[in-house]
Amino acid sequence: MTQEKKRLPLTVIGGFLGAGKTTLLNRWLREAQGLRIAALVNDFGALNIDAELVAATHGETLALTNGCVCCQIGDDLGRALVQVIESATPFDAVVIEASGVSDPWRIAQIGMAAPELSLEGVIVLVDAAAAVQQAHDVLLADTLARQVKSADLVVLNKADLADAAALAEANAWAEVTAPGTPRIEATQSAVPLALLSGLPLPAAGREPCASGCERDHDHAHHHASDHGAMFQTWSAQPAAAIPAELLRAWLRDMPPGVLRLKGLLRTGQGAGGDEWSEIQFAGRHGSLRKARPPRGARAGVVAIGLRHRLPVHALEQFFAR
């Protein structure tokens, strides 16, 4: 079986001026955990990266000591993407920070034109304290609505600065503007790195067990994540093959509450042996692509969602095969 060449996952961060996009990107770069991220920004000076994290500066490129790189987009996003794609040292993911007044979906479409890239998520931040007031400004309303409608995940940021009424109004506005789009609340752009589309989630079945756990680790297993009480992860290692047609149908009807899902699964038997596929889901969109067998030929899938909203029972029912 011919394996599809691995493509570089691309995530676009959008949102109006002051929503917290740069803070989020800065947080992800600091917490890269060994992952090599290429960040394309309008002005990397605005990232305010600590001097000890900067390894070298070359014109419009800023290299960090953890292997991540920041590149200024300038007037040519396409050229910046080509530089990332052709890098002598491969990256694990590309993140583009859209300007505060731009449409992140148009930026995502530029990335989609490159066959070496795989668009796997548009994350849009909204200032929860200012959203409703801005949405009623005739000069801003269209821009804000267009940004939110392009999102796979809406982050109502600065939730700590909004009172209960303002936060409820911001949630209501986001739901009316983009019905059904997954939405979370955050403070100081504290969004887990695991929600960065395309990056590896914790290996299935590798999380430490709680005291007294007696589960068979070939079956579904879930624990709270390391991102505080707000998020929860779930993982499983399905022993049986799951047909690709069944997986695609399930992706089209994903149970509510799954913010991010990734895995390598056995999907059938071919002339050359087992067939494997990589499953991805972020926000509202899912994909299934042929993949090479994982080390040890052991299937695994991991999901992340809001604590107490992750549909653990539905996940266990589907993947316990």
TrEMBL record:
<dbReference type="InterPro" id="IPR027417">
    <property type="entry name" value="P-loop_NTPase"/>
</dbReference>
<dbReference type="Pfam" id="PF02492">
    <property type="entry name" value="cobW"/>
</dbReference>
<dbReference type="InterPro" id="IPR051316">
    <property type="entry name" value="Zinc-reg_GTPase_activator"/>
</dbReference>
<feature type="domain" description="CobW C-terminal">
    <location>
        <begin position="231"/>
        <end position="317"/>
    </location>
</feature>
<dbReference type="InterPro" id="IPR003495">
    <property type="entry name" value="CobW/HypB/UreG_nucleotide-bd"/>
</dbReference>
<dbReference type="InterPro" id="IPR036627">
    <property type="entry name" value="CobW-likC_sf"/>
</dbReference>
<dbReference type="InterPro" id="IPR011629">
    <property type="entry name" value="CobW-like_C"/>
</dbReference>
<dbReference type="Pfam" id="PF07683">
    <property type="entry name" value="CobW_C"/>
</dbReference>
<keyword id="KW-0547">Nucleotide-binding</keyword>
<comment type="function">
    <text>Zinc chaperone that directly transfers zinc cofactor to target proteins, thereby activating them. Zinc is transferred from the CXCC motif in the GTPase domain to the zinc binding site in target proteins in a process requiring GTP hydrolysis.</text>
</comment>
<protein>
    <submittedName>
        <fullName>Putative metal chaperone YciC</fullName>
    </submittedName>
</protein>
<feature type="domain" description="CobW/HypB/UreG nucleotide-binding">
    <location>
        <begin position="9"/>
        <end position="176"/>
    </location>
</feature>
<keyword id="KW-0378">Hydrolase</keyword>
<comment type="similarity">
    <text>Belongs to the SIMIBI class G3E GTPase family. ZNG1 subfamily.</text>
</comment>
<dbReference type="GO" id="GO:0000166">
    <property type="term" value="F:nucleotide binding"/>
</dbReference>
<keyword id="KW-0143">Chaperone</keyword>
<dbReference type="GO" id="GO:0016787">
    <property type="term" value="F:hydrolase activity"/>
</dbReference>
